[in-house]
């Protein structure tokens, strides 16, 4: 009796293991941003390939932290920004090079693909493929504010009604508004530290003007809707979302230049299901799918032909926020060398501590 | 023979889950964190042993300011929670009877059925500029325009006291329940006034409970992350937030580990100091929790 029971349970265990292994084969563990994997697209992918996508929502810092904790295991594909790939790849070894022969590179806009290959290139290998691009700029309530540059957030007439994040883009933006070029100083930590210290001091003197340092996107959007905040530094998608609800709320490309980022596909070092990862990349970069995701994310893609399927409203908003000169003036983030973030961190801590 | 007697084996088996828990989930991670805190990055992926992380803490005023601030505010929260909880505990343990008492206990526990996050968001809704309380004050004419009640240190205190009150109440109620009413009657008979009775009978009897409650509230407050982050504004600094930032946004695990150890040291020291000053024994107060 006992023997039979144990045989049975062993059998059950074996089947369970087999099922589990089978399930692992058809699962793609995706580490990405909110809205980058809308349910409809996930469902369609499952229908076409039989692969289930497990989505984990994250942001740039958390992606690095999560992958660092496991040495690059636990996920099969991630969507970090292109400037955050080579630094952590070299420092913590969390990403693996992309096998371009498995990617339908013809799906990408060639200029964007080659730009990203350059930024994410390390030892002659490519670590990232472009997916979405967007900018950081100003969201302004046009009825109550005429803010046109990052510096205007510190103007006394908007006292208590502006907001920024306590993150490095804010420092970079203030530096550009002061006429400096922090990106050029990336290679020279001393000069970079001097620029960031200045930007930090500017932010300290500006601090009493700010309602708060915003943390959650929804909190900020709500306060802009209610008029509690009239101008804030934020990314374009949030601004355009508000603009669709209320035309007086606008996304403005600042005079000293919007900050441009590119989010990419990158493959964690210990990804298990590489096949699924490449399938997802080739699936998402089909123009009609890319357009669908772009609509959900509110950003523009690096996929060739996706604009033909894009929302007319979004195209109009892009044109309104970015006249040709502003488009040219976008400051694209170069890859961040390891160690720079420590400088940013110290400056940000000082800003937070100052009163 | 080196075989455990059946009774000792039984004891061993019963203790095993607790021992495993302590060893695997508490001791082991602390050893790892301790080792991390003694490292310094010297190049990409290269590390050397050093005390740099601890030195940074003392060199950079920001960090130890935050540290002192966190400790002070936690002490204030503990005192406020004690002052608020004592009368409540007294009425539940000594005044209320039967059903009323059960209802009161349930009333205290009920808010804790919702997660801390939800309760803090509740405060957010009440206190924000366009929220319930500022709008009410404005509407009643107390303020010329809706005031922003969020993002002050006082807001953090309110949130922390609120979220830790339960942990003060339970040991206090336990302690006060065991106080024999006849002792108080005897004191009155002997001509004692209320203050005397509180000072010389009630408080000494409840002392282990008070100590237990204070230790719990202090520890929970010191290690709280959510409340200061949600309710605190652009000037709020909490030490756990620093640790989180070091680990997650700065990728500086070494610094974060050093901070974590300093926090552990601080809390142990302050608890020890509190027990010494009040003449309580740790074992006594732990029996009351």
What does this structure look like?
The complex is a heterodimer of chains A (355) and B (289). Chain A has 355 residues and is α/β, with parallel strands linked by helices. Chain A has helices spanning 2-25, 39-49, 60-70, 86-92, 110-119, 168-177, 189-206, 217-225, 236-245, 274-284, 287-297, 312-321, 324-328, 340-353, and strands at residues 27-32, 52-57, 77-78, 95-96, 121-122, 125-126, 129-141, 162-164, 210-213, 231-235, 249-252, 259-265, 267-268, 300-301, 331-332. Chain A folds into two domains: 2-133 and 261-321, Periplasmic binding protein-like II (D-Maltodextrin-Binding Protein, domain 2, 3-Layer(aba) Sandwich), CATH 3.40.190; 136-258 and 327-353, Periplasmic binding protein-like II (D-Maltodextrin-Binding Protein, domain 2), CATH 3.40.190. Chain A contains 14 helices and 15 strands. In chain A, strands 7, 8, 9, 10, 11, 12, 14 and 15 form an eight-stranded mixed sheet that branches. The longest helix of chain A is centred in the first third of the chain and has 24 residues, at 2-25. Chain B has helices at residues 6-37, 52-59, 61-95, 98-109, 116-127, 132-139, 153-177, 181-189, 194-222, 226-231, 239-249, 253-278, 282-288; strands at 39-43, 46-49. The two termini of chain B are 41 Å apart. The A-B interface holds A 61-62, 64-65, 68, 88, 90-93, 160, 166-167, 207, 210-213, 215, 226, 228, 338, 341-342, 345-346, 349-350, 352-353, 355 and B 44-45, 60, 62-63, 65-66, 129-130, 148, 151, 229, 233-235, 237, 242, 245, 247-252.
């Amino acid at each position: 009796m006992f023997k039979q029971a144990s045989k049975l349970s062993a059998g059950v265990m074996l089947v369970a293991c087999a099922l589990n292994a089978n399930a692992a084969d058809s699962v793609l563990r995706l580490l990405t941003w909110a809205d980058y994997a809308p349910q409809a697209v996930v469902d369609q992918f499952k229908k076409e390939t039989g692969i289930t996508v497990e989505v984990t929502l994250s942001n740039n810092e958390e992606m690095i932290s999560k992958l660092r904790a496991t040495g690059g295991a636990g996920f099969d594909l991630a969507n970090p920004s292109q400037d955050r790939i080579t630094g952590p790849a070299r420092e913590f070894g969390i990403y693996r090079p992309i096998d371009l022969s498995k990617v339908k590179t013809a799906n990408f806009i060639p200029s964007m693909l080659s730009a990203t290959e350059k930024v994410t290139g390390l030892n002659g290998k490519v670590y990232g493929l472009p997916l979405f691009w967007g900018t950081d700029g100003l969201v302004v309530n046009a009825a109550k504010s005429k803010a046109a540059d990052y510096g205007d957030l510190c103007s006394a007439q908007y006292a208590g009604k502006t907001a920024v994040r306590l993150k490095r883009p804010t420092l970079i933006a203030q530096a550009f508004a002061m006429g400096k070029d922090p990106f050029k100083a990336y290679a020279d930590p001393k000069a970079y530290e001097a620029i960031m210290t200045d930007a930090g001091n500017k932010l300290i003197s500006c601090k009493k003007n700010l309602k708060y340092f915003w943390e959650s996107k929804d909190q900020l959007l709500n306060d802009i809707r209610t008029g509690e905040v009239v101008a804030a530094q934020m990314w374009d998608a949030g601004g355009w979302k508000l603009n669709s609800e209320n035309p007086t709320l606008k996304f403005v490309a600042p005079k000293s230049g919007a900050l441009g980022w590119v989010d990419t596909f990158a493959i964690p070092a210990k990804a298990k299901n590489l096949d699924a990862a490449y399938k997802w990349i080739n699936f998402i970069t089909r123009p009609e799918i890319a357009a669908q995701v772009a609509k959900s994310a509110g950003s523009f893609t690096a996929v060739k032909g996706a604009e033909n399927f894009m929302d007319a409203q979004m195209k109009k908003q892009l044109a309104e926020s970015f006249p040709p000169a502003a488009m040219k003036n976008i400051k694209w983030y170069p890859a961040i060398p390891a160690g720079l973030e420590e400088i940013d961190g110290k400056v940000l801590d000082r800003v937070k501590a100052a009163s | 023979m080196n075989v455990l007697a059946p009774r000792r084996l039984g004891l061993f088996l019963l203790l095993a889950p607790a021992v495993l828990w302590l060893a695997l989930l508490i001791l082991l991670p602390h050893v790892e964190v301790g080792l991390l805190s003694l490292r310094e990055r010297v190049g990409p992926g290269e590390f050397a042993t050093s005390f740099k992380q601890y030195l940074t803490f003392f060199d950079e005023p920001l960090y130890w300011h935050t540290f002192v601030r966190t400790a002070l505010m936690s002490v204030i929260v503990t005192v406020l929670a004690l002052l608020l909880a004592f009368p409540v505990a007294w009425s539940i343990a000594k005044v209320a009877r039967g059903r009323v008492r059960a209802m009161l206990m349930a009333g205290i526990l009920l808010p804790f059925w919702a997660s801390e996050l939800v309760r803090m968001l509740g405060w957010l809704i009440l206190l924000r500029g366009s929220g319930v309380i500022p709008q009410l004050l404005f509407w009643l004419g107390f303020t010329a325009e809706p005031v922003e009640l969020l993002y002050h240190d006082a807001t953090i205190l309110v949130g922390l006291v609120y979220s830790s009150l339960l942990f003060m109440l339970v040991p206090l109620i336990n302690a006060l329940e065991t106080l024999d009413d006849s002792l108080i009657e005897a004191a009155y008979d002997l001509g004692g006034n209320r203050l005397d009775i509180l000072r010389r009978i009630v408080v000494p009897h409840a002392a282990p409970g008070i100590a237990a409650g204070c230790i719990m509230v202090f520890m929970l407050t010191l290690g709280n992350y959510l409340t200061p982050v949600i309710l605190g504004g652009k000037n709020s600094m909490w030490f756990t937030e620093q640790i989180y930032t070091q680990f997650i946004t700065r990728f500086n695990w070494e610094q974060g580990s050093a901070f974590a150890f300093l926090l552990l040291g601080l809390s142990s020291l302050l608890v020890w100091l509190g027990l010494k000053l009040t003449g309580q024994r740790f074992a006594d107060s732990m029996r009351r929790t």
